[in-house]
Amino acid sequence: MKKAEILYEDNHLIAINKPAGFLVQGDRTGDEPILDVLKRYIKVTYNKPGDVFLAPNHRLDRPVSGVLLFSKTSKALGRVNQLFQQDKVKKQYLALVEGVPEPLEGRLTHYIAKNRKKNISFITKQGKPDAKKCVLSYKVTKVINRKCLVEVSPKTGRSHQIRVQLSSLGTPIIGDLKYKAQQNMEDRSIALHCRSLEFVHPVKKERIHIQAPVPSLQQWKIYLD
């Protein structure tokens, strides 16, 4: 693990800037997940005997980049997970989307279910099997040639939530062909980046703000210059 990829680290937590294309945890592809890479980094760097305890506090889809937080102890894991469940972690994402949502700023509430065989989520009605409430706020910050940069603050953390909800406005995330995008990203990622997490440290009780630089792709640079 390159030092530049580590955004924050202490005895309780470690946060990295996850590159697009990497798994958080193992799946049937057999590709090495970030979790295993980080465990190895901790074991070697701190000369830890035996198994290293490390667990993710949230998930980022494989094609998504940005801040990814892990707990180094079971105590920290329980406390931080509780912060996420109680909506006490402020999450900000950046997305590049095709089209311009109307209105330019708003709050979206949907019920989403997941087809696990196809690994795709879809909007459904309240009360339907597996339907989960999803809420996010968004704000368009820059428009160029009918594409735009959007700041997104999810209030819930459902599978593919931001991807589905933005697509429901007719503005899919660039590169997200699964959810009706027409344009690819240069590196085959999708243009969704977890920009920052902010929360009260579970042990130190200090307010922590962790921010990740966006990928160095021209498609991002156009909107951020």
TrEMBL record:
Residues 12-168 form the Pseudouridine synthase RsuA/RluA-like domain. InterPro entries: PsdUridine_synth_cat_dom_sf, PsdUridine_synth_RsuA/RluA, RluA_PseudoU_synthase. It comes from the Bacteria. GO terms for biological process: pseudouridine synthesis; RNA processing. Signal peptide: none annotated. GO terms for molecular function: catalytic activity, acting on RNA; pseudouridine synthase activity; RNA binding. Keywords: Isomerase. The keyword Aminoacyl-tRNA synthetase does not apply. CDD domains: PseudoU_synth_RluA_like (cd02869). The keyword Isomerase applies. Belongs to the pseudouridine synthase RluA family. This is RluA family pseudouridine synthase.
